[in-house]
Design a protein that fits this description.
Elements lengths: L5 E5 L4 H12 L3 E6 L18 E5 L5 H7 L5 E4 L6 H6 L1 H22 L3 E7 L22 H20 L2 E7 L2 E2 L12 H11 L3 E4 L5 E2 L2 E2 H13 L7 E6 L5 E2 H14 L8 E4 L14 H7 L7 H11 L6
Parallel strand pairs: 1-2, 1-4, 2-3, 4-5, 5-6, 6-11, 7-10, 8-13
Antiparallel strand pairs: 9-12
Helix pairs in contact: 1-7, 4-5, 6-8, 8-10
The chain binds nicotinamide-adenine-dinucleotide.
Nicotinamide-adenine-dinucleotide binds next to helix 1, strand 2, helix 4 and strand 5.
Length: 324
């Protein structure tokens, strides 16, 4: 179904984007990546550079002309480009807004002008905001807790409007804490799992914000890739727009994550002596996050390829340890 289709992946030099590119190329698609390397890494793309079906377009989604160039000759889009991180969005809301909201609208509009119907995009579990109900079900959202969450809610609103006005098919994927290979462990805005693993490998203290009892529906990146492929290829008539939770439907505490990573390292013969220390809770964070995945399962046939423990085993067993 993807063979010889021309797919644009924005943010393709990033963590989820580069994993998606690998699968799209494996399924025979032509892939164009648009990225400005704000947080993405060139080495995430190295393995694709010799593939004649791969093309890199260095461009910025904040620039309308770049978006117009990026969509030329494209059949469908997976829009992953954004500035992640709740704390970053609290510290620098304008940057987050410009990339995640204005940049999103630029891409959506460029797609519409080019006559591209299928627009798949990265939304986030953060759209559930302060909603106390668990598990989270599409259609029942709370109030946003950060500028980042506001931008992802805006994405869904714009996607819905463009679908209704211009007969586009927009599919928002609400990722729940994705982890896996090519995720950056460095920097103050790094995600928890790669940061924890990096600290364990260096035998440095693992800092958990809060008491570690907060829970997340951690999702191995191959599950997120699968959701993208299904959303790009499904024959389902969307009647406009759809939003789906992308998760496993099972949650784990941060303390359990550290222990699962430690155990994964033991399986590789690495015994980390790193201790866990606790820092202050982070503003904008939610205590518990768990998804119901019935809608994406029944509507486009998604099921998690990996449970959280299976994902951790694969992640740790392939993690490059040479530079530690
Ligand atoms: N990782 C998660 O757990 C998670 C959870 C929920 C939602 N998301 C969303 O999934 C998407 C991918 O996230 P990720 O974890 O791979 O992050 P990432 O930072 O690794 O990837 C984002 C990519 O977008 C690129 N980018 C940023 N600004 C750009 C701009 N102005 N123009 C062009 N490219 C730009 C970056 O350089 C990077 O390559 C994002 O939209 C993010 O908000 C991620």
């Amino acid at each position: 179904m993807l063979k010889n289709k021309h797919i644009l992946v924005t943010g393709g030099a990033g963590f989820i984007g580069s994993n998606l590119v690998q699968e799209l190329l494996a399924q025979g698609a032509h892939v164009r990546v648009m990225d400005n390397f704000a947080t993405g890494r060139r080495e995430n793309l190295t393995e694709f550079l010799s593939n004649p079906k791969f093309e890199l377009f260095e461009g910025d989604i904040q620039v309308v002309e770049d978006c117009q160039k990026a969509v030329k000759g494209i059949d469908a889009i997976s829009h992953q480009a954004a500035l992640g991180s709740v704390p970053r969005s609290i510290a620098f809301p304008h940057n987050t807004h410009s990339t995640n909201a204005t940049g999103f609208l630029n891409m959506l509009h460029a797609a519409k002008e080019e006559g591209i119907k299928r627009f798949v995009y990265a939304s986030s579990s953060s759209v559930y905001g302060d909603l106390a109900i668990s598990p989270k079900v599409e259609g029942v959202e709370g109030s946003p807790l950060s500028p980042y969450a506001v931008t992802k809610m805006l994405n869904e609103q714009y996607a819905g409007v463009y679908a209704r006005l211009f007969s586009m098919e927009t599919v928002g994927l609400r990722y729940f804490n994705v982890f896996g290979p090519k995720q950056d462990p460095n920097g103050v805005y790094a995600a928890a799992i790669p940061k924890f693993l990096d600290k364990l490998l260096k035998n440095e203290a693992v800092t958990i914000n809060g008491d570690g009892s907060q829970t997340r529906d951690f999702t191995y990146v191959k599950n997120a890739v699968r959701a993208n492929v299904l959303a790009l290829t499904t024959d389902r008539e969307f009647n406009g727009s759809a939003v789906y939770n992308v998760a496993c439907g099972e949650s784990f505490t941060l303390l359990e994550v550290v222990e699962a990573l430690r155990e994964g390292l033991v399986q590789r013969g690495i015994h980390s002596t790193a201790e866990v220390v606790h820092g202050p809770e982070r503003p904008g964070d939610i205590m518990h996050s768990l998804a119901k995945i019935d809608r994406i399962t029944s509507e486009i046939g998604y099921s998690p390829l990996y449970t959280f423990p299976e994902g951790i085993v694969e992640y740790v067993s392939n993690y490059p340890v040479d530079n530690h």
